[in-house]
Specification:
Helices cover 24% and strands 35% of the residues. With 326 residues, it is α/β, with parallel strands linked by helices. It has two domains: 117 residues, Rossmann fold; 173 residues, Hnrnp arginine n-methyltransferase1, CATH 2.70.160. The strands form three sheets. Strands 6, 7, 8, 10, 11 and 12 form a six-stranded antiparallel beta sheet that branches. The chain has a five-stranded parallel beta sheet with strand order 3-2-1-4-5, sandwiched between helices. A four-stranded antiparallel beta sheet has the order 9-13-14-15, with no helix packed on it. The two termini are 29 Å apart. The structure holds S-adenosylmethionine. The site of S-adenosylmethionine has 21 residues, from α2, α5 and β2. Its EC number is 2.1.1.319.
């Protein structure tokens, strides 16, 4: 393939799969959830939505699944087929190339699957996420009483002191070798930053803003406006809101969970930083209340429009709105 092909099919190159496979928090959580729960897989039919290199398919086959169907629209499925064969799973794992929404699965008429596994999460959980695809698979193929893995996802917010890095990323545009580049500053402020944040920068307790039950959530519920209240834990300054997510496999005998928060081990999702237009001066005991709106972008539904409307009730009150697109 040429670089043009790889641009059109970003999952075709092995590099992106290398990053995901080497993310041990991610991959070992899936392995533990699947391989340590053979009672959910023995003799069962399993669908892996977006199978990539086939790693989750092979975990499911090892856990005793009778039949595993992996679907992926990317050309990485060519390698997935070779990997499945090289590891002796050719008779159990059936790989289908195409968009899940469009392909025909190797199932008898009316036949459903017992388990759906998928690694669908994007930055800030929903950015470029393929959750819509997973929900379409659930509604079309999951047998009544079937299992989703993972089955819950939670989105959290906090706020951080980030003077130095904000200056480097945002303040930079005020004076570029003596020139006024502030038009770029406005764009930079609207774009969330995916990066790792040290726990010592976090100034508020975490607040759960959205809890998603994969068995019941609808596509419409992924467009939301939910309230939050961030309790300030020390006297400091706030430059940004911080977002991350946790996922959990509650159907397991012993629930398996992982977090992508600043208190947890590194994952390739890092955290998401939303710089606010005006710094807030806060004291311990104060709080920031507000709403977080999240909606797929009208032009590109894999992009997200995110709006924070918030109020600081402190000695230096602030009422503001910050809009982002990612
Ligand atoms: C985050 S990767 C996960 C790959 C693999 N399951 C793993 O855990 O290493 C998501 C995969 O889903 C595929 N994908 C995304 N949307 C899809 C769709 N609508 N139909 C089929 N595959 C899709 C991508 O091509 C990509 O390989």
């Amino acid at each position: 393939m040429t670089s043009k092909d790889y641009y059109a099919d970003s999952y075709a190159h092995f590099g992106i799969h290398e990053e995901m496979l080497k993310d041990e928090v991610r991959t070992l959580s899936y392995r533990n959830a699947i391989c340590n729960n053979p009672h959910l897989f023995k003799g069962k039919t399993v669908l892996d939505v977006g199978c990539g290199t086939g790693i989750l398919c092979m975990f499911a086959a090892k856990a005793g699944a009778k039949k595993v169907i992996g679907v992926d629209m990317s050309n990485i499925i060519v390698q997935a087929r070779q990997i499945v064969e090289a590891n002796g799973f050719k008779d159990t794992i059936h790989l289908v190339k195409g968009k899940l929404e469009e392909v025909e699965l190797p199932l008898a008429p009316g036949e459903k699957v017992d388990v759906i596994i998928s690694e669908w999460m994007g930055y800030f959980l929903l950015y470029e996420s393929m959750l819509d695809t997973v929900l379409a698979a659930r509604d079309k193929y999951l047998a009544p009483g079937g299992v989703m893995m993972p089955d819950t996802a939670s989105l959290y917010l906090s706020a951080i002191e980030d003077q130095e890095y904000r200056e480097e990323k945002i303040g930079f545009w005020d004076d570029v070798y003596g020139f006024d580049y502030s038009c770029i500053k406005e764009i930079a402020l609207r774009e969330p930053l995916v990066d790792t944040v040290e726990l010592k920068s976090v100034v508020c307790d975490p607040c759960l803003v959205k809890h998603i039950n994969l068995l019941t959530v609808t596509k419409e519920e992924l467009t939301f406006k939910d309230s939050f209240k961030l309790n300030v834990t020390r006297n400091d300054y706030i430059h940004a809101f911080l977002g991350w997510f946790d996922v959990s496999f509650d159907a397991c005998h012993k629930p398996v969970k992982f977090s992508t928060g600043p208190h947890s081990r590194y994952t390739h999702w890092k955290q998401t930083v939303f710089y606010v237009p005006e710094m807030m001066t806060v004291s311990a005991g104060e709080s920031i209340s507000g709403t977080l709106s999240c909606a797929p972008n009208a032009k590109n539904n894999r992009d997200l429009d995110i709006v924070f409307e918030y109020e600081l009730d402190g000695s230096q009150p602030i009422k503001a709105k910050a809009e982002f697109q990612m």
